[in-house]
Amino acid sequence: MESALDQKEIVIVGGGIIGCTSAYFLTRHPAYDPSKHKITLLEASKIAGGASGKAGGLLALWAYPTNIVPLSYRLHAQLAKEHGGESRWGYRQIHCGQLAAKGRPNETKQTLNGKPSNGESVSLNKRDGKALGKVIAAGLPKDLNWFAPESVQSYYQMGDPNTTAQVHPYQFTTAMAELAAQKGVKIILGSVTSIDTANGSGVKSVTYEDKATKASCTIPATDVIVSAGPWTQRVYPPAPISGMRAHSVTITPSKPISAYAIFTEIALPPDFGQKNTFLKSKRPHSKTVTPEIYARPNNEAYACGEGDHLVPLPKTTEDVETDLDRCQDIIDYVSSISDELRDGEVTVRQACYLPNVEAASGGPLIGQTGVKGLLLATGHTCWGIQNGPGTGKLISEFVFDGKAKSASIGSLDPRKVL
User: Fold this and answer.
1) Residues 258, 301: contact at Cβ < 8 Å?
2) Helix 384-401 vs helix 169-182: angle between axes, to the nearest 10 degrees?
3) What pLDDT, in 10s, does the model give residues 258-298?
4) Measured between alpha carbons, how far is 390 from 394 in angstroms, rounded to an integer?
5) pLDDT digits (tens, 9 = 90+) for 146-163
6) 23 vs 138, which has greater pLDDT?
7) Order of strands, edge to edge, in the sheet holding 223-226?
8) pLDDT for position 120
9) What does the angle CA 283 – CA 284 – CA 287 come to, to the nearest 5 degrees?
10) Positive or negative CA dihedral for 303, 309, 310, 313?
C-alpha cells in the first residue's frame, strides 16, 4: 500500500504556456496516477491571457537557450502529430529570413477599424520585369512576393522548414490546458496571495483569492511550480524577474501571403508618419525600425514592435494597457514595405508583458529553488512558446524523478541567482 508521503498535491501557479505545458507533461509522466496525485493550476485572470495568447508563436532550432531548444522543438512536432496540431493550433513548418528594406511614405490612411479611410487603395508598385529583377538581385525568394520590390534591399535566410515552424500561441496554450484537464488537472481562476511553508520542511500549502467569489482559499501542496511569467516576483519575491511591455497587431492581408517569418530592418524616409489625422504618432520615429512579421494560416499576419518599460506591470493580464499609437506605428512600418499589409484589415491591436531574468546569467530559470517542493519555471523572454513543451517536460521530471533527465540544464538552475 502506498504511504501518504507518496501522494503528491501539485500546485501550478500561472496559466500561461509554461504552466499549461507543465500541467500537460505532469499528467503524461509514467509515475502520474490520478487516483493518487492531485494537480491544480491556479490562474489569476484567464488561460493564455498574457503573452502566451498574444505572442508570435515562432518555433526555431536556432532559438535559445541551446540546452533546451532541441528538446522543445522536437516535442512541438510530436504534440502536433499526436493531437492534430496542424488544424487545432496552426502548427506548420515555415521559412524565416532577415529583410532589409527602405520604407515608403504612407500612401493610405488606416482607420481604427483597420480599413483604408478612403475605401479604396490602388497599388502603384507593379511587379514588372524590372521590379522582379531588383527583387531577385536582393536575394528574395520567388514565393516571398508580398513586399514592394522598390523597398527591398537585401534578404538573408535564417531558417527553413527543417529548422523553423510556428503555432498560434493562444490556440496552442489553451489546447495544452484542455488536454491536461482531460487527464485530471483542476483549473481554478484565482490570484495567489501566499505560498506557505512549514518550518524547515518545505512547502505545505498555497493561498489564493478566488476570482469570482473573492474568498480566500487555501489548498495543501507538496510541490509548487511558479510559472507566473512577469508576475513571478509578485508570487515569489526572491525571483529576479521583471516585465517588459510589447505591442503587436494582426492583419488580414489584401491577398494571401506565403509562409514566412520575417525579421525586418526598415530605413524610414524623413518625416515618416501620418499627417493631419487623429492617428498621428505622438513620438518621433527612429531612422531605422525592426518590426517582425509572421504569416499565419488562414490568411493572417502577425506583426510586433520593440518593447518598452513606460507602464509598470499591472495586477493581472486583464489590466494591461494597450497604447494604440504604438500599435499604429507597427501598422505604418509594415505598410511602408508591403502593399498586402497596407491594404489589409487590421483585426487586433494588443499588448502584453514578457518575463526577463534580471541576472548576468540570463534565463530562463527552470528547477529547484532551495525550498523543498518549490520549483521555478519562468523568465523565457520571447521564446516562451518555443520552449514551453521542453520546460513542461523537465518540470514533470523534477516533480516525479527529483531531477531533470531529458536535458542538461545546470546553467538554468534558479539557485544560482536566488
Assistant:
1) no
2) 20
3) 999 999 999 999 878 755 444 544 456 789 999 999 999 99
4) 6
5) 999 999 999 999 999 999
6) 23
7) 216-220, 202-210, 186-198, 38-43, 9-13, 223-226, 374-378, 365-368
8) 35
9) 140
10) positive
